[in-house]
């Protein structure tokens, strides 16, 4: 039976970042990935490094997102150096567009509230004229925006590939096609994992299996009550650059493709696409960028976000099985920097970063008074 | 490179980059241009490399050309019409310009 310092269950962006981050510390690491039967949120991602609205109502999440945005350039540079893969990180700032005065007012209140709760991320409201100067192609139906200077975007598929490649370069194991069936606590600490006919042993364990975590977590005394929330994405042909900024609904990639999205549907484990939702996405984006009306659509897909009951991440070490950790969020790109460079070393050292108690799933178990 | 199997009359006239090209009724733009010996239909958006049709059935988007002023048309899916003006697709299509933006500029 092969034994590792750390096994990460889940080969997506959360698991990949933690596995590579740990391997960089010199740990022997195996990354167990399921197969194409898994829902693979990392392969349907929009690609935002998004800070401005993350953690409203939960300052530690706001600070963690901000921290990740700060260290993201180090992540991109380290991956480029290790793998020669450019994950196309750009951090020109991000805009959240408002389509009427009520939206603008609500947004301004939310940004002010976050500022009061969590301190300054530099986010401010921009009026029509300033926004038009920033994004000349913006439609007349957009009345203003909130702008956060530390928002950005990256290519999520290149990020996933680079994390896997960098892990392999450090001697880590990427093991696809492994569905973990059972986890047992070993004698004197450590864990044994059963995946089909194979068994693996490790000193520490991270469950970062997205929607699959729900079933795995109880095997080591953890609780990860995650549920799917579908998003549909439309991709156009490559267009000449017209939008450098990250936005919550539309993103132009480094190579010119335009991604349109931001739909949210509670439809269970159905990652398909539907015409009415895509019509809504297209109509909304035409208000923001009327010039997209003749852009050819080349791809569409649906993917399932991994959502906790309150939308905030879960990070937790098991009380009954010390050394077993849970990590889940729906911000695998945004948080990749912090996951690789700060969370992974902390987990290897045996404890979550200080102040992470608030991310425990115990927050969902408050007893009635 | 390509040769027509049948020697029917090519009696439709259209233009490619301002040069007259003849085609047979029913030809797609891609078929007519290949039969006329054209090798490069477009330059790619990222590297500017030349491209020609590959699948000839609407799937690969490698045959993009500008037809009568409309960018990024699939040459293999568009039937030739007399007088059609076809140009190479150079790089990515520009965003359709917003009249308001032009007025403001």
UniProtKB/TrEMBL annotation, chain A:
Domain FAD dependent oxidoreductase spans what residues? 5-344
**Keyword Transcription included in the entry's annotation:** no
What's a Gene Ontology MF term here?
oxidoreductase activity
Keyword presence, Phosphoprotein? no
Q: May I have one GO cellular component term? A: cytoplasm
**Domain of life here?**
Bacteria
Q: Which Pfam families match?
A: DAO
**Classification via InterPro entries:** FAD-dep_OxRdtase, FAD/NAD-bd_sf
The protein's UniProt keywords, in alphabetical order, are: Oxidoreductase
What protein is this chain from? FAD-binding oxidoreductase
TrEMBL record, chain B:
Q: Which Pfam family would be a valid example here?
A: Fer2_4
**Keywords (A to Z) from UniProt:** Oxidoreductase
For the keyword Transcription, the answer is: no
Alphabetized GO MF terms: iron-sulfur cluster binding; oxidoreductase activity
Checking Gene3D superfamilies in the record gives: 2Fe-2S iron-sulphur cluster binding domain, sarcosine oxidase, alpha subunit, N-terminal domain
Is the Oxidoreductase keyword given for this protein? yes
Q: Which SUPFAM superfamilies match?
A: 2Fe-2S ferredoxin-like (SSF54292)
Q: What is this protein called?
A: (2Fe-2S)-binding protein
Organism of derivation: Limobrevibacterium gyesilva
At the highest ranks, the source species' classification is: Bacteria, Pseudomonadati, Pseudomonadota, Alphaproteobacteria, Acetobacterales
């Amino acid at each position: 039976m092969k034994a590792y310092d750390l096994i990460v269950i889940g080969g997506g962006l959360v698991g990949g970042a933690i596995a590579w981050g740990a391997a960089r510390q010199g740990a022997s690491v195996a990354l167990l990935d399921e197969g194409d039967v898994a829902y693979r949120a990392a392969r349907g991602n929009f690609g935002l490094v998004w800070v401005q609205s993350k953690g409203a109502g939960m300052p530690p999440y706001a600070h963690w997102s901000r921290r990740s945005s700060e260290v993201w350039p180090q992540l991109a540079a380290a991956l480029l150096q290790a793998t020669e893969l450019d994950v196309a990180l750009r951090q020109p700032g991000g805009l959240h567009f408002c389509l009427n005065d009520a939206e603008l007012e609500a947004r301004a209140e939310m940004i002010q509230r976050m500022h009061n709760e969590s301190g300054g991320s530099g986010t401010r409201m921009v009026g029509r004229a300033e926004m038009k100067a920033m994004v000349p192609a913006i439609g007349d139906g957009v009345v203003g925006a909130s702008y956060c200077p530390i928002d950005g975007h990256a290519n999520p598929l290149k990020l996933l590939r680079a994390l896997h490649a960098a892990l392999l370069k450090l001697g880590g194991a990427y093991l696809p096609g492994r569905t973990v069936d059972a986890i047992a606590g070993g004698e004197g600490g450590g864990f044994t994992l059963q995946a089909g006919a194979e068994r693996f042993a490790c000193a520490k364990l991270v469950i970062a299996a997205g929607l699959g975590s729900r079933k795995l977590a109880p095997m080591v005394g953890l609780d990860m009550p995650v549920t799917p929330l579908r998003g549909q994405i439309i991709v156009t042909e490559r267009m000449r650059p017209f939008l450098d900024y990250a936005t919550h609904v539309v993103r132009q990639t480094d190579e010119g493709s335009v991604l349109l999205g931001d739909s949210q549907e509670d439809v269970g484990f159905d990652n398909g696409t539907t015409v009415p939702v895509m019509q809504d996405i297209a109509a909304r984006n035409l208000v923001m960028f009327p010039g997209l009306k003749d852009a050819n659509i080349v791809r569409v897909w649906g993917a399932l976000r991994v959502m906790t009951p309150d939308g905030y991440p879960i990070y937790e070490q098991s009380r009954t099985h010390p050394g077993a950790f849970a990590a889940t969020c729906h911000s695998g790109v945004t948080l990749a920097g912090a996951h690789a460079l700060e969370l992974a070393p902390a987990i290897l050292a045996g404890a979550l970063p200080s102040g992470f108690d608030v991310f425990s799933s115990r927050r969902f178990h408050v007893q009635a008074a | 490179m390509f040769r027509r199997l049948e020697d029917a009359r090519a009696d439709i006239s259209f233009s490619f980059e301002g040069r007259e090209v003849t085609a047979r009724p029913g030809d797609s733009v891609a078929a007519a241009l290949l039969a006329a010996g054209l090798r490069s239909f477009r330059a790619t958006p990222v590297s500017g490399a030349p491209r020609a049709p590959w699948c000839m059935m609407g799937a690969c988007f490698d045959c993009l050309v500008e037809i009568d002023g409309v960018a990024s048309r699939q040459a293999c899916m568009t039937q030739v019409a007399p007088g059609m003006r076809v140009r190479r697709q150079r790089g990515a299509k520009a965003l359709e310009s917003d009249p308001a933006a032009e007025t403001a500029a």
